Amino acid sequence: MVRGEGVYLYDEHGRQYIDCASATFNLSLGYSHPAVVKAIQKQAELLIHTTSAFQTDPVNQVVARLIGESPANLVKAHLKVGGGSEANEGAIKMAQFATGRREVVSLFRSHHGQTMMMASYSGNAFRKAPFPMPYPGSLQVPDPYCFRCFYGQQRQTCGLMCVERIDDFLEYASGGQVAAMIVEPISGNGGNIVAPDGYLPRLRRFCDEHDIVLILDEVQTGIGRTGQMFAAQHFGVEPDAITLGKGLGGSGAQVAAILTNDRLAGLPAHHHSFTYGGNSLAAAAAVATLDIVAEPAFLANVRATGAHILARLGDLRGRHRAIGDVRGVGLMIGVELVEPDGAPAVALTNEIARRGMAHGLVLRTSRYGYGNVLKIRPPLILTHSQADDICDRLDALLREVAA
Q1: How far apart are the C-alpha atoms of 286 and 209, rounded to whole Å?
Q2: Quick check: 204 and 59 in contact, CB under 8 A?
Q3: Per-residue CA distances from 322 to 174, 228, 293, 318 (Å)
């Protein structure tokens, strides 16, 4: 690959691809967005980096903007992290420090990062298998996967058993020292599983009842991906912390953040501070990104193009028996592929992603190739005509591979 522009990526032979994965779901504004490029160029002439012991204008602006856009209870921002793994690990440390407890609850199929701690909290056994000593104190519970409900229930009558039964896991599978629960509002790598209506507010109440810190991992859902600045706003919940990364950099700048309430703000900085955290160049890119994404018309376009893709994919589901389910919010969309008997079609999913390149589509699959969901998450600048182009190409690809 040699060049990117907007939603398109170009290889050394001049071939053009629509990037349905926004690189690694981090190019919220696509490739080489002019406002981000200009902000980086301007900042590079002034100050590229300084130790995070010092304040800089770009970092202070990011903090102010994030707190201004976040749920009202989140009043502190920590930018001394360089990516989502570090942000998630930092939020957990804050919860452990504040509560004096150590255990962390996460969901089946969850993915919260690549560090040893975060891989240990993953809801996938294959992430932990190669390593002899996973980080202790992790407890996984069933995710709200309505299409394949762990409890065999229907949403209309389930009573949100996936929340209510967490009590049993705390009673019989934990060590009685749960500090936090970390949840993706929509699973990033775990299959684009969307929390059903009422799930997150009920989980908020559950955590309050048990004095458990609720952390929303918005590394993928944050910064406009759902058509709101944060998925927390879409689902109507106020967590104790939100973690951010990926799309905060707009066109690929490496920047991440932890937003917290007052309770979690007491962790001494030396316990979680990284070399390139609070980088001035990345912060300038983040300011430019937030200026654009926060515009109501921009977020409205994310909702509109996302709804259009979901409608188009719903139509494709009626014509391609391999599509078992289509789900998503905004431009965070998943297509679940199934065998004729309804079993997960993992091999087919990987083959479609591999052959997508020939159709000019960059596609990613769930669970690092172990899953059966195609992830459709293009840059948020996607137009209506580009959304149709994606769906048309995917239709042709399915007719070729899954006929």
Answers
A1: 36
A2: no
A3: 39, 31, 35, 10
315/104 Cα distance (integer angstroms): 41
Rounded distance, CA 95 to CA 264, Å? 6
pLDDT for residue 36: 98
Q: Which residues in the chain come in under a pLDDT of 70? A: 403
Tell me the β-bridge partners of 181: 105, 214
- Paired with 302 in beta bridges are none
* pLDDT, position 135: 80
Bridge partners of 8, per DSSP, are 5, 18
**Collapsing DSSP states into helix, strand and coil, what is residue 89?**
helix
Nearest residue to 338 (alpha-carbon basis) of 365, 372, 371, 314 = 372
C-alpha closest to that of 201 among 373, 71, 18:
71
Helix or strand (DSSP H, E) at 324: strand 323-329
Determine whether 49 is exposed, middle or buried from the number of CB atoms within 10 Å of its CB (0-12, 13-18, 19+).
middle
Nearest to 309 by CA among 378, 368, 234: 378
One DSSP character per residue, 184-208 reads -SB-TTTT-PBPPTTHHHHHHHHHH
What's the token pair of residue 176? 């009685």
The full length of the chain comes to 403
